[in-house]
Design brief:
It holds the Pfam family MS_C. By secondary structure, the chain is mainly alpha-helical. Helices cover 63% and strands 7% of the residues. The protein has a two-stranded antiparallel ribbon. It is globular and about 45 Å long. The two termini are 22 Å apart.
Length: 91
């Protein structure tokens, strides 16, 4: 559950930034608006780093669930809710 709690905190922070027009500031002072395409690009890059490991389809499924949660117009109560059907299946 510790990992789920950390994921919840991170997810809620990114969702808030995205939906309240925040920007990220680089070390050299340049700012970039946090947008849906950029959030999904970062998520895709993170998955690409791990897709060659065991069970790459699980990383892709996780990215799909997290991506929808981060970019949806409404805030999902818990990240674990859309994950639950996949966690409890044997596929």
């Amino acid at each position: 559950m510790e990992d789920a709690a950390t994921a919840e905190i991170s997810r809620s922070q990114v969702w808030q930034w995205l939906h309240h027009g925040r920007s990220a500031e680089y070390d050299h002072g340049e700012k970039k608006a946090i947008t849906k395409p950029w959030v999904l690009e970062i998520l895709d890059a993170a998955v690409a780093r791990h897709v060659t490991t065991t069970s790459p389809h699980k990383f892709e499924l996780a990215a799909e669930i997290v991506g929808k949660s981060l970019t949806s117009d409404s805030f999902e109560d818990f990240l674990t809710l859309p994950c639950y059907p996949h966690i409890t299946s044997f596929a």
